[in-house]
Amino acid sequence: MTRLHDLPHAAYSVDYQTLANKYRPVFDKIAEGALSREKNRILPFEQIQWLKEAGFSAVRIPVEHGGDGASIPQLFQLLIELSRADSNITQALRGHFAFVEDRLNAQRDADQGHWFQRFVAGEIVGNAWTEIGQVKIGDVITKLSQQDGQWRVNGKKYYTTGSIFADWFDLFAQVEETGELVIAATRTRQTGVDIADDWDGFGQRTTGSGTATLVNAQVEAENIIPFDTRFKYQTAFYQLVLLAVLTGTAQAAVSEFSQQVRQRTRVFSHGNGDRVDQDVQVLQVIGKASAQAYAAEAVTLQAAHAAQQAYQLHFDRDEDAEKQANILAEIESAQGQVVVADLVLQLTSNLFNALSASATSEEKRLDRFWRNARTAASHNPLIYKEKSIGDWEVNGKEPIYVWQIGGGSKEAGGKTSP
């Protein structure tokens, strides 16, 4: 079957090195404090502010609107570099770049200049979709309703990644009166909004992925967006952010373990030399991990080209071509996730073979690379991605683009719930 990588890539007006050089000084500053933030669970408010001031929130916005005009592959290459500095920050911005992508697609049919201006001004958007507790699949507890002529939203969201740093929520809700599913772009800094840093995962601990509670929070009517207009390759895009997180984590791990090898003076009597950095088996460990990280980046950027093709075809108004592009964007991102997750989880564990028990020191926190990778790779179970890919290859079944998580029809133990 035809693959998107068989098609020519579009020529991009923005040179990647010029684009990257704009942001690399900020990335370098971010990297300097990453270990300290990990040790002390310091949320990166300051570091995200640096990115906003540098214009990173508008990196995808067209040049004529004040942004950098980056393509999707260029965005994800930048996100890999940012993830090498601190993968938590990339994940914290996941919801922002997805909302930006949605507004870029919406520009085809309606002017989005007001949103573009906000992004250029440094405003960012956080995620607020998932609900936990007594919620069944298909239900939406967060409700939007009119009160005294104003739209108000009430509900509680978990996994609100990045929202604690953000100016807006990308909030999934249901209109109480009609049952319509919508995105309610809601200002985070207003009465009735509380965002807690209560994420308790063992990895990606500073992404701000906690609970948001909204009590009669106001939503402007022009910021209520029908969910069925959401950009079609959104699931692929969200997965690409995780692939960038994983790839950058892999690169950071290879760099840090290489430095640890260079600094190590103690050798084993049954090793292969008087210096660790000359031990051929140690070098083999580093070499294999480096190759795996290289492969992860190549796969991630290839999948990003598939999303770019879906974006471009959206503006051609050829529904059949766009549908095919969206299918392949989803399939390629899933293929990438399956392969990259395994590569990165292996290398972040196997790199410990280059050192010894001292590498497990809490002071060094070298386990952070595996913990962060394991957490990022757990967001969307790989087994379902593998099944979806197989169903496409064997049966030509179109993948599911939008899915939910919630209570099933049966309780644990097989008892039917009331």
Automatic annotation (TrEMBL):
InterPro entries noted in UniProt: Acyl-CoA_DH_C (IPR013107), Acyl-CoA_Oxase/DH_mid-dom_sf (IPR046373), AcylCo_DH-like_C (IPR036250), AcylCoA_DH/ox_N (IPR013786), AcylCoA_DH/ox_N_sf (IPR037069), AcylCoA_DH/oxidase_NM_dom_sf (IPR009100)
UniProt superkingdom: Bacteria
Keywords from the named record: Oxidoreductase
GO terms for MF: 3-methylbutanoyl-CoA dehydrogenase activity; flavin adenine dinucleotide binding
SUPFAM superfamilies, sorted: Acyl-CoA dehydrogenase C-terminal domain-like, Acyl-CoA dehydrogenase NM domain-like
Organism for this UniProt entry: Methylobacillus rhizosphaerae
Residue span(s) of domain Acyl-CoA dehydrogenase/oxidase N-terminal: 28-101
Protein name per the record: Acyl-CoA dehydrogenase
Record bears the keyword Oxidoreductase: yes
GO biological process, one term: L-leucine catabolic process
Coiled-coil annotated spans: none
Domain Acyl-CoA dehydrogenase C-terminal per the UniProt entry, residue ranges: 242-380
